[in-house]
């Protein structure tokens, strides 16, 4: 039985308080309560008196590693709590040479799944008092009601096929290791359904999605693979992407970003989760993932390696005569 | 159709004068194609206009000509970014867009009868030049005039006709030039403007100090003026922020609750001290 | 004038408007309800708290061409003015109030923003009172309420099996007498006032938790507070809050040209973007998130009130619902009220 996140909240607070007080870290990136029990938010604390605002519970989904880029030019270490998927995101930032691993104090949190707060919030259970792990379900007890939530329906999709429950290479770990077994095989059926559509229908589908895009750049800002010093879309001279909001520009933005991230995406799904207009961005990334698996024979392109498939060229092995 | 404040008028560049040795500053003399627009363009020293290079964009540039000399406008432009780059590529006879005038103006009313101390650095002399020529065209209305002007090197001094010649010839008007570093031909003072100012030691009695220049120069000049006994109300300066609309709608150029495009760019030091330090 | 209209007749009216003018209404697509042009009443969603994006999209579009120019040989400039008539249906009270706040900036003062003003003239606003405020709504904090109608040309209130309707302007009357002819019945005045009163007094729970009284005064002395440093760290620096907000109006003017001709257009910009205040030459007065987050909330709750006497927020709650990190104005108001200023 995996330990619940809340069981480690006190230990995390104690540890962070200690690390801040003795100067090991100058700040810690973790979670705090949001507008209700179902929407915890990121929190960056820099003083021991802020530590009691940190929480850890089974709804803590946010991928925090991108915040490390805010501190790369400053002295001192930043602490951070990472789940399994987050540790892949951290590896992405380290392998891309954007974050110096030596400047990060990683507290690992083995994870067997995060509850999808968006699905639970409408159930009317009120403020959550207790969450119990029942094996194939979570029992959520709120002050207005209780429900047993089957994991297969109430965890985030990415948790169901995750095989990286334990953050590797952490400086400290909260709780026991979780068996690295996926609840179900990685599912590409939605991508396959799109692939089967005639190209005009596929175009219509994506154009409809893109027409909702408001170019807020939340997806880019939260993505650990989007870590360029200066994003191509921010460059004024030459201006690669205009400021007009029309379909061609939305297409340019999303397809360019998808391709820039392809092969380096860690499948964290944060882009789709933070999108205020609910664009199915992970469908794009998972399509590319699926193609990379087939074309390059790398079964797990979402696990960062020293050099990614699209970051290398092997002249002698390339089946094509001309690059 | 009521006038759209964002639509520029067509103007022609009549004359381009490189100001600095490396021509990174050029003065553009411009007239509106429509004589009625030219006639009706009433501006005051300190105000700015939005210059359009169509296809590239707009930039807010202070008007360096004096409103006492009518029939044309002059803009001194330093090559800094996309729009100013494009302007520097322009040729005489080329057409641009101009809209304005925008912003508040130097407080001439407050300056009348007073001794005037102008302190400029580099291209910062451009807005001051409008004011200085304005004042000199009505010389009797003002007291003693001291113009302190410095640039990085002799080649960087702008408006050489005025600073080396014309302005020195007016009654009770002194021009004090300095450079940060000299060259083989320079025989004048070599000092940073704030230091130079303290050496000149102009009296604050019945005086108004007006200063424009790079932020770092302003910062130390203000300190020097305080040392010389100038109060916050006696000191006038200008702010610069990125601008888009120029008419107080796009929200971009605010410093606190003031919009630099309509409440500025001219501020006294006492007004400036009430604003948050975000410029 | 107070009238009633049956739902069927309302649909008939909306169908007519969709055919005769551009009708913008709440419509759900792929799980998201937002205001968009619809071709028939059947596309309209009636069961929603508020749309994801606001009426701002149609009065002050995210990008809009302002003028055409030709630079081949000589210079010719041609202004573009929006002329198309449009009707917006289903505009909630918070959005109606937001339009009034935008009007203050964009149409008053020495100049009026011409395109916005033209669109305002060409748009008929049909407001719709709120039956079920969301748990993120807090319009009541600012003195608005679920039945607030100021700014609407025609205001609708769902009342059992029909709608109460009130014409508030000539445009509203024109709608009722023109396309709406024969579809409206006079209302019993007393009953109608009771319906309006009930909506005005409808509970907005979250509004009780957000007290804005005097926040502008507190913020007069809050510029240097440590709070901005603390709270800004979790900001993602995206433009979500500014873009979904019905009162945010910062914009950019850009040219796009090819082969000697092009357009100058206006598009939304966000004070949350890093380059917002970056000048040519590289100087940026707001170089980090701290300055930008502070600017946003000072503008909304202190600078705008200084200039225009109201807060630049109507409690629509979109930023509360959609900010991915929960850094929203309701939270800031509560924090600032509760935080003791640091020395």
CATH topology of the largest domain in chain B: Rossmann fold
Shape of chain B: globular
Element order of chain C: H for helix, E for strand: EHEEHEEEHHEEEHEHHHHHEEHHH
Looking across the biggest beta sheet of chain B, what order are the strands in?
Answer: 4-3-6-1-2-5
Tally of strands of chain B: 14
Strand order of the largest sheet of chain C: 3-2-6-7-8-9-1-10
Compute the number of helices of chain B. 8
How much of the polypeptide of chain B forms β-strand, as a percent range?
A: 25-35%
SS content category of chain C: alpha+beta
The number of helical elements of chain C comes to: 13
Low-confidence stretches of chain C: none
- Label the CATH architecture of the largest domain in chain B: 3-Layer(aba) Sandwich
Distance between the termini of chain B: 37 Å
Report what the structure shows.
The complex is a heterotrimer of chains A (323), B (279) and C (343). By secondary structure, chain A is α/β, with parallel strands linked by helices. Chain A has two domains: 169 residues, no CATH class; 123 residues, no CATH class. Helix content of chain A is 30%, strand content 13%. In chain A, the strands form two sheets. In chain A, strands 1, 2, 3, 4, 5 and 9 form a six-stranded mixed beta sheet that branches. A three-stranded antiparallel beta sheet of chain A has the order 6-7-8. Chain B has 279 residues and is α/β, with parallel strands linked by helices. Chain B folds into two domains: 94 residues, Elongation Factor Tu (Ef-tu), domain 3 (Beta Barrel), CATH 2.40.30; 131 residues, Rossmann fold (3-Layer(aba) Sandwich). Chain B is 22% helix and 29% strand. Chain B has eight helices and 14 strands. In chain B, the strands form three sheets. In chain B, strands 4-3-6-1-2-5 form a six-stranded antiparallel beta sheet. Chain B has a six-stranded mixed beta sheet with strand order 9-8-7-10-11-14, with helices on both faces. Chain B has a two-stranded antiparallel sheet with strand order 12-13. In chain B, strand 3 and strand 4 form a beta hairpin. In chain B, helix 6 packs parallel to helix 7. The mean pLDDT of chain B is 93. Chain C has 343 residues and is an alpha+beta fold. Chain C is 35% helix and 22% strand. In chain C, the strands form two sheets. An eight-stranded mixed beta sheet of chain C has the order 3-2-6-7-8-9-1-10, with helices on both faces. Chain C has a four-stranded antiparallel beta sheet with strand order 5-4-12-11, with no helix packed on it. The chains are: A alpha/beta (323), B alpha/beta (279), C alpha+beta (343). Chains in contact: A-C, B-C.
């Amino acid at each position: 039985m995996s330990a619940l996140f809340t069981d480690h909240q006190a230990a995390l607070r104690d540890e962070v308080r200690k690390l801040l007080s003795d100067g090991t870290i100058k700040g810690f990136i973790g979670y705090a309560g949001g507008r209700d029990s179902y929407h915890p938010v990121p929190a960056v604390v820099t003083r021991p008196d802020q530590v009691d605002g940190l929480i850890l519970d089974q709804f803590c989904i946010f991928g925090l590693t991108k915040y490390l880029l805010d501190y790369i030019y400053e002295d001192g270490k930043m602490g951070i709590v990472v789940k399994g998927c987050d540790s892949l995101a951290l590896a992405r930032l380290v392998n891309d040479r954007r974050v110096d691993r030596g400047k990060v104090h990683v507290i690992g949190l083995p994870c067997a799944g995060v509850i999808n707060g968006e699905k639970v919030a409408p159930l009317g259970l009120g403020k959550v008092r207790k969450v119990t792990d029942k094996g194939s379900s979570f029992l959520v007890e709120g002050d207005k009601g209780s429900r047993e939530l089957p994991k297969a329906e109430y965890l985030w999709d990415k948790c169901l096929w995750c095989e990286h429950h334990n953050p590797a290479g952490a400086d400290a770990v909260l709780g026991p290791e979780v068996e690295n077994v996926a609840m179900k095989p990685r599912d590409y059926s939605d991508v396959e359904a799109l692939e089967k559509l005639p190209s005009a229908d596929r175009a219509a589908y994506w154009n409809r999605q893109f027409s909702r895009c408001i170019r807020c750049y939340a997806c880019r800002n939260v993505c650990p693979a989007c870590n360029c010093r200066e994003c191509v879309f921010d460059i004024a001279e030459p201006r690669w992407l205009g400021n007009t909001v029309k379909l061609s520009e939305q297409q340019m933005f999303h397809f360019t970003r998808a391709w820039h991230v392809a092969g380096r995406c860690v499948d964290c799904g944060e882009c789709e989760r933070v999108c205020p207009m609910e664009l199915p961005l992970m469908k794009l990334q998972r399509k590319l993932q699926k193609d990379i698996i087939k074309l390059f024979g790398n079964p797990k392109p979402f696990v960062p390696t020293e050099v990614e498939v699209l970051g290398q060229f092997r002249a002698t092995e390339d089946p094509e005569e001309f690059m | 159709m009521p006038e759209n404040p964002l639509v520029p008028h067509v103007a022609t560049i009549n004359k381009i004068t490189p100001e600095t040795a490396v021509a990174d500053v050029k003065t553009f003399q411009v007239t509106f194609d429509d004589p009625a627009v030219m006639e009706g363009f009433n501006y005051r020293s300190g105000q700015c206009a939005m210059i359009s290079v169509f296809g590239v964009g707009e930039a807010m540039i202070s008007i360096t000509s004096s409103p006492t000399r009518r029939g044309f406008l002059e803009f001194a432009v330093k090559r800094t970014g996309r729009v100013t780059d494009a302007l520097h590529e322009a040729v005489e006879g080329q057409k641009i867009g101009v809209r304005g005038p925008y912003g508040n103006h130097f407080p001439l009313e407050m300056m009348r009868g007073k001794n005037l101390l102008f302190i400029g650095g580099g291209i910062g002399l451009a807005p001051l030049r409008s004011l200085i020529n304005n004042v000199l065209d009505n010389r009797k209305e003002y007291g003693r005039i001291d113009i302190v002007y410095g640039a990085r090197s002799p080649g960087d001094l702008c408006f050489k006709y005025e600073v080396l010649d014309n302005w020195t010839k007016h009654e009770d008007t002194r021009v004090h030039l300095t450079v940060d570093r000299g060259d083989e031909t320079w025989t004048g003072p070599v000092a940073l403007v704030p230091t130079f100012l303290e050496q000149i030691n102009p009296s604050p009695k019945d005086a108004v100090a007006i200063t424009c220049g790079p932020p770092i120069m302003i910062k130390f000049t203000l300190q020097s003026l305080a040392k010389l006994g100038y109060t916050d109300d006696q000191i006038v300066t200008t702010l610069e922020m990125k601008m888009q609309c120029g008419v107080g709608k796009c929200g971009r150029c605010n410093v606190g609750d003031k919009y630099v495009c309509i409440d500025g760019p001219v501020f006294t030091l006492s007004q400036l001290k009430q604003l948050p330090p975000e410029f | 004038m107070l009238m009633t209209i049956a739902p069927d007749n309302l649909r008939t009216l909306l169908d007519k408007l969709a055919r005769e003018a551009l009708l913008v209404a709440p419509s759900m697509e792929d799980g998201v309800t937002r205001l968009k042009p619809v071709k028939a009443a059947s596309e309209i969603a009636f069961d929603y708290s508020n749309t994801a994006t606001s009426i701002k999209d149609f009065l002050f579009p995210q990008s809009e061409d302002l003028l055409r120019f030709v630079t081949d040989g000589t210079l010719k400039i041609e202004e573009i003015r929006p002329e198309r008539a449009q009707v917006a249906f289903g505009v909630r009270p918070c959005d109606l109030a937001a339009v009034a706040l935008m009007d203050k900036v964009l149409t008053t003062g020495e100049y009026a923003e011409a395109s916005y003003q033209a669109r305002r003239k060409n748009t008929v606003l049909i407001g719709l009172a709120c039956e079920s405020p969301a748990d993120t709504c807090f319009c009541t904090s600012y003195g608005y309420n679920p039945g607030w109608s100021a700014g609407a040309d025609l205001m609708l209130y769902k009342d059992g099996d029909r709608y109460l309707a009130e014409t508030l302007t000539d445009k509203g009357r024109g709608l009722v007498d023109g396309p709406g002819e024969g579809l409206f019945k006079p209302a019993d005045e007393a009953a109608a006032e009771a319906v309006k009163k009930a909506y005005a007094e409808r509970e907005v729970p979250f509004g009780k938790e957000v007290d804005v009284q005097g926040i502008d005064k507190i913020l007069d002395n809050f510029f240097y507070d440590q709070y901005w440093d603390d709270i800004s760290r979790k900001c993602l620096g995206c433009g979500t809050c500014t873009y979904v907000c019905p009162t945010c109006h910062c914009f950019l003017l850009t040219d796009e040209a090819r082969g000697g001709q092009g357009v100058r257009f206006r598009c939304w910009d966000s004070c949350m973007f890093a380059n917002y205040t970056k000048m040519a030459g590289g100087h940026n007065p707001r170089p980090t998130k701290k300055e930008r987050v502070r600017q946003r909330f000072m503008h909304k709750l202190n600078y705008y009130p200084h200039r225009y006497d109201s807060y630049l927020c109507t409690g629509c709650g979109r930023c509360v619902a959609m900010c991915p990190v929960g850094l929203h104005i309701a939270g800031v108001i509560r924090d600032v009220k509760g935080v003791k200023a640091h020395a």
